[in-house]
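Methods, example record. To illustrate the input and output format used throughout this study, we show the complete record for Monofunctional biosynthetic peptidoglycan transglycosylase. The sequence lines were provided to the predictor; the line carrying structure tokens was produced by it.
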Amino acid sequence: MDIISPKRVRFTLKTIRALIFLSILAILFLSTILVSVSLYAKWQGPPSLSVPQSTIIYADDGTKIGELHNGEKRYWVDLDHISEHLQKATIAIEDQSFYDHNGFDYKRIVGAALADLKAMSKVQGASTITQQYARNLFLAHEKTWKRKANEALYTIRLEQNYNKDEILEGYLNTIYYGHGVYGIEAAANYYFGKSASELSLGESALLAGIPKGPNLYSPYVNEEKSEQRQKMILEIMQEENYITKEQLEAARKQNLEYKTKTEVVKKGLAPYFQDAMMNSLVEELNIDEEAIQTQGLKIYTTLDPTLQTTAEEIMEHSIEKKSDIQAGFVAIDPKTGNVKALIGGRNYQESPFNRVTQANRQPGSTIKPLLYYAAVTKGFTPSTEMRSEPTTFTYDDGKATYKPSNYNDYYANDFITMLQAIALSDNIFAVKTHMFIGMEELAKAGEVFGIQTKIKEVPSTALGTSPVRLIDIVNAYGILGNGGKRIAPTFVTKVEDAKGEVIFEANKTKEQALNEQAAFITTHMMTGMFDTDLNDYTSVTGSSIADSLTRDYAGKSGTTSTDSWMIGLTPQLVTGVWTGYDKGKTIDLVQERAYAKKIWASFMEQAHEGDSVKAFKPPDGVIGVYINPDNGRIATKDCPVSRLTYYIEGSEPTEHCTEHLPEIDPSEEPPLNEDEGSLFEKLFKWWD
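The corresponding predicted structure is encoded as:
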């Protein structure tokens, strides 16, 4: 049996007493702080409301293109005049413990912290309704510890001076519901043409979901996402016993009738651009939408008013007014990623849905430059040959087959070069390339080029069956054209607060993302779509607009049954046009299939009018060779077509084309001189 010494016992007791004493001191200290803060908050009384200030939006030349007038649609109604369904829906999605906490939900805070720690990023919020009310009314929106401390103090002041119903009433009367609308009364009228007291369960659940992200969940922006969030809120309400299962099912079946959108807030120039700009500030720059709307910011954008006006006029005059076809357009500076012009649809008032930044569509053959860039990095050259003929491909260890076809079932039934393949948009060559280098390479290239959607590793993705956003594929072409420097679509260059202090400025440094030589070679091959000298078993894909172009462009078109694309660039500007139908309707009219190329060609010519012609500059490490594009060998004076083509040094062709050497008629051969001929011939002559 161990014997504990009296000395050790005394030491242990002293330690325990010291710990107890320190714990009591810590509790007293914290209690004193909490009591002091509470008394201070009570002594300060209810904080006064601040007056929202208009935020001004500027174009790249300093002209004002928009102003966010706030408070125009703002009405205050008593809680008794707000649908109980709306109150419960808001509490269910925003703060389920609202009536039980004192302004802070500690359990939720711990849960959010653990979720954020697990994800190593901010993935979950823990703000209560009182905290949100405090932040929206009284505070600047910068992400600092000082603001967090002020938010906590204001939260305590609200809880000390108002009861829960008063806080909820204030929150519902001041929260932002999108489109310049503040408060539930204005929102109920704006979306459904009724008072807040008249809202049904289904309408209430939909409106409760909007404040999380008005630019994402407004039914006038994205009806599908809005109604998905509504259904989620209804399910939470049923789980929290706010509604019955029968009420849930009835609300799900209710056909929501939105108010005619004639009262949608009219923006100034480029409304689709302004929406995309707003979204980039909220999602990418972590600036709260409330701050953007109410804090008197000055937002300096990348928009070029002249190019925007040009694009809008061309689109309006190029598409038949009676046609229901939709369109998306975006022009980007390839050196910076700055978005210079953007049109997300044919009529913003009828449909604010942005087909440039929100729609995912199959890009067709416009994906091929990314594939061919990957192939060049794997050893392919513009002279690489493969047969263009009907082909059935097997994959997935022989379990599956894929049989693509060329446009109109035209094939060379012979070998063609990669230079020809991209100009003629040969599908067989593309799929063979895709399969040869490994289907994972195109998926990897998509990530490097900044494509936001994942490209599937199947044979058909070589022909653009994996959906992408127009703005992403246009930005990818910009990366090719600038020599491989990483850019991203940029809408804002600088943001100043009401005091004139810069709170955001775009990063101007661009890192190298691609192999510079391979990027240039791919871009130069893309000029072939407008070169009619490359016509072969079919015409180059840009032949219909080639005669209208006055300078060299690199580009690629793409076509599916429901989509028509044209993307092309110069060193100064990259522009993409998409046309198609929103609901999956096929493009059947020849005239409608021509819209994308027609709009693109007209815009690029007008956009460059008066500008000096600039060529894509070959970097060190590439060499230019005149080749016969039919076989990829060095051209001779006898070749009917000779085209300057670039290669990574050491990969250029060394053989000369011999297909077009003149044939020699034996009867026209000159007589032999006495000194000519073989020894046998000389002996024969001597003997004779």
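Annotations derived from this record:
Residues 119-124, 262-266, 672-688 have pLDDT under 50 and may be disordered.
The radius of gyration is 34 Å.
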